[in-house]
Amino acid sequence: MTGILSTRLVTIFGGSGFLGRHMVRALANDGWRIRVAVRRPNNALFLQPMGRVGQVQLVKANVTNEESVRAALKGADAAINLVAVLYQSGNQRFDSLHVEAAERIALLASELGVGRLLHVSALGIEGNRSHYARTKALGEKRVRSAFPGASILRPSVVFGPEDDFFNKFAWLARMSPALPLIGGGKTEFQPVFVGDVAQAAAKVLKDASTAGQTYELGGPETLTLKQIMELVLRETRRNRMLLPIPFGLARVQGVVLELLPKPLLTLDQVRMLETHNIVSEGAMTFRDLDIVPAAPGAIIPSYLWRFRKHGEFEAATS
Predict the structure, then answer these.
(1) Contact 77, 114 (CB under 8 A)
(2) Beta bridge partners of 119
(3) I need a labelling partner for 251 at 20 to 30 A (CA). Which of 51, 131, 146, 278 fits?
(4) pLDDT in tens, 246-290
(5) Cα–Cα distance for residue pair 59/69, rounded to 1 Å
(6) Helix %, strand %, coil % for the chain, to 5?
(7) What pTM was estimated for this model as a whole?
(8) Can you tell me the distance from the alpha carbon of 188 to that of 272, in angstroms, rounded to the nearest whole number?
(9) Cα torsion angle, 263, 269, 273, 276, sign
(10) HSE on the CB side for 222, CA within 13 Å?
């Protein structure tokens, strides 16, 4: 942790999520005072030890409420919007969070004179016909219009100890005799380590030249869905059948499974898989931020071991 605590204050919306907790740690190490705006502060108390005493402050805020957002932004030097959902449930709707809330944060940040705004979007949303992607793309446009100097990060699938990607497939490998290859498993990804995305955020807020820029953040390896499944099976030491599922059948399954409280698959997620999730040619990337991203193979063994038959003792028994 840095030896000097800055007077700079950053407000992070959605800071208690998977990416948020790593971003809080990175910014705390960089000396920022951090105000984490969340709906339920009592559920985010684990963030406070990531900084010095008093460095990480939790405030109650709802991004759908203008006055709530205004109060969270008051006096901030910078703001980060991490609010997003992967599927719709109850009041958590794509349009409300990805578009309306994103625009609200940007408009109020501009009105209140917040110096820097970092908006975290997603890679592969252009040309993707899923509702998730379309609202993410529209949210970017609204943010750019409201706060022209906003910096935008577009990460590919983010992985790390608490991820809902490699962990989900590893869980399936433990529970099921087969792993589904939607669309034949041909969709391409550039999985990106959560720590590298957090480091990118810290660099963006530190460097004024990044204002108004968009960075596409992909890891060093391009992997198909099939290769990702094979990697999971190798790391968890499981022998499972890889079952190709045509997109048409997967859409039907998504319609049924999305009725569950926490669906394993939705129709919208199937549509997302119809487009590759890789960095576009000519985009600004980690290289422009002087960051060398880590490959999945260097990180996932440190947490997927728990899905092996004998857990951390697998090596001793194999």
Answers:
(1) yes
(2) 81, 152
(3) 278
(4) 999 999 999 999 999 889 899 999 999 999 999 999 999 999 999
(5) 10
(6) 45, 20, 35
(7) 0.94
(8) 11
(9) negative
(10) 8
